[in-house]
Design brief:
alpha+beta, seven-stranded mixed sheet, Glutaredoxin
Length: about 200
């Protein structure tokens, strides 16, 4: 009985590490349904709303609108994460490295869902990972709807120059972040008639 309990606990820890954390669970993690990542096409529609109209506060305290954020970018990748989420933290170094390889017409933005409450910790995590891109810590409008519908972190969405979703999102941490992101960015660029990475 004792061995079965230990085996069950180890299996749950493994699922937790591979999947993602429940956004609503605060410090408690709940694995994503697939055990690693899911892509979210449902009945021909992407699984989250577009983020066309919102105002946001960045980690540095400045304010931006959706129009400001997406200006001049064919594709924006938005990675939603939390300071208390181990899978989010585990992928941050790879995320930071990938961000540095992107061309000028593609950007990677992060949104720290608990960034308002933990701004210093958020800044430290990003600095240690070497992430040099934009990080939002709060947002209104369409972004509020997105966050309310999101159940797990990390969750990553891919949007066009006006905030419309262009391809399936990523829920949880992909086993190969660069491959998964590149595939979706290429699909988004192709849809916009812009070639590929």
């Amino acid at each position: 009985m004792k061995h079965k309990t230990i085996a069950l606990l180890l299996a749950l820890c493994l699922l937790f590490a591979l999947a993602g954390c429940s956004k609503d669970a605060g410090q408690t993690a709940v694995p994503a349904a697939s055990g690693e990542e899911t892509s979210g096409q449902k009945s021909g529609e992407y699984d989250f709303p577009d983020v066309r109209f919102f105002d946001a506060t960045l980690l540095d305290g400045s304010a931006v609108t959706a129009e400001d954020l997406f200006d001049g970018k064919d594709v924006t990748v938005i990675n939603c994460w939390a300071t208390w989420c181990p899978p989010c933290l585990d992928e941050m170094d790879e995320l930071a490295a990938f961000e540095k390889t992107l061309p000028d017409n593609v950007q990677l933005v992060t949104y720290c869902v608990d960034g308002v409450q933990h701004a210093d910790e958020c800044a430290q995590i990003l600095e240690e990972a070497g992430f040099e891109g934009t990080t939002m810590i709060s947002a209104t409008g369409d972004f509020t709807t997105l966050i309310e519908q999101m159940q797990y972190v990390p969750t990553t969405i891919f949007v066009d120059s006006v905030g419309r979703q262009t391809c399936d999102s990523l829920i949880g941490s992909p086993s190969d972040l660069e491959e998964a992101y590149t595939e979706r960015i290429d699909a988004a660029l192709k849809a916009a008639g812009k070639g590929s990475l």
